[in-house]
Amino acid sequence: MEQQEVIKKKPFEFNNTIADQTQFKVATVFEGKCTLSSYNRRDFYKISLITKGTSELLYADRGIKIDKPVLVFTNPLVPYSWEATDGAQIEEGSGFFCVFTEEFLHSGTRMESLQDSSLFKAGGDSVFFLDNSQIEYIYGIFSRMRQEFDSEYVYKYELMRSQVNLIIHEAIKMQPAIAYATPQNAASRITKLFLSLLDKQFPVDSPRFALKLKKAGDYASRLAVHVNHLNAAVQEVTGKSTTTHINEKILSEARSLLTHTDWSVAEIAFSLGFEYASYFNNFFKKHTGYTPLSLRKTL
Q: Taking every annotated instance into account, which residue ranges of this chain make up the domain HTH araC/xylS-type (predicted)?
């Protein structure tokens, strides 16, 4: 699975041009021909149904043992790891997963953002242990989605969109798992997930979209921890502050954009989360001794 999960996958090959075909995939666990990693992980939500195996799902400051059939919802901006316990592995043929963008699921409708949904948001209810009837129902939906995915039915993506919504609404009716525990080495885990989340914000690939997470508080919210807790953990483990890590990443990306693109300084400033180009100029000069334009002229 994504982000150090025990299910190791390779990328989906997105060779189609139709939007739905690039915004949704469904596969069985370990399915070779439906593999994952070339898609932009910042954009894709994920629903996993695991029916066999033992593992542990770990977030920044909480974790839960997975030792029975489970339905899990994950957000592309909330880092996690899914690790084997006592050498046990999630087995081949032990379930399904699907990945999709918010655009695919909403498809023009005015629904709440998935990031604000209790199923996907940081610290929300995202893990559901299933009884036999729930397993049968959810497994059946995933099976039908997987079957339709290979079909030539003209409206198959509309059908699969409805089936994903069925899973979401079924989960909303369920009782979420509450047996969370604090993982060992919490500072190390929080730091690791912070750095993973920071890395996922880059590279910046369009001057039209601003950086979403710009300061320590933004990252703390995604990790569902207090900002002071995050700052203390990162400082303890790395010897540098959270803000220093963020600034270093932004400066590195700024140099890259100034060097390898023809974007204007204003466009670069916007893409890196600065409201005004003057703020970006001041930030860049403070940390490098050069203005963005003067650096670009030396290249």
A: 218-298
Residues 37 and 141 in one domain: yes
Alpha helices of 51-173 — where are they, by DSSP H? 102-106, 132-149, 156-173
User: pLDDT tens for residues 49-71?
Assistant: 999 888 888 777 778 888 889 99
Alpha helices, DSSP H, located in the chain: 19-23, 102-106, 132-149, 156-173, 186-200, 216-223, 227-238, 242-260, 265-271, 277-288, 292-297
Using alpha carbons, list the distances in angstroms from residue 80 to 189, 201, 237.
Answer: 9, 15, 18
Q: How many residues does the chain have?
A: 299
Q: Given pLDDT bands bounded at 50, 70 and 90, which one contains residue 180?
A: low
User: What domain range includes position 162?
Assistant: 19-173
How far, in Å, CA of 138 to CA of 143, rounded? Answer: 9
Specify whether 67 is located in the same domain as 25: yes
Task: Indicate the number of domains in the chain.
Answer: 2
Residues 94-138 pLDDT 10s = 889 999 988 888 765 545 566 667 787 666 678 899 999 999 999
Q: pLDDT for 195-236, tens place per residue?
A: 888 988 888 888 888 888 999 999 998 888 889 989 999 999
Shared domain check, 121 and 59: yes
Please give the Cα distance from 60 to 74 (Å, whole number).
14
Whole-structure pTM over 0.70, yes or no?
no
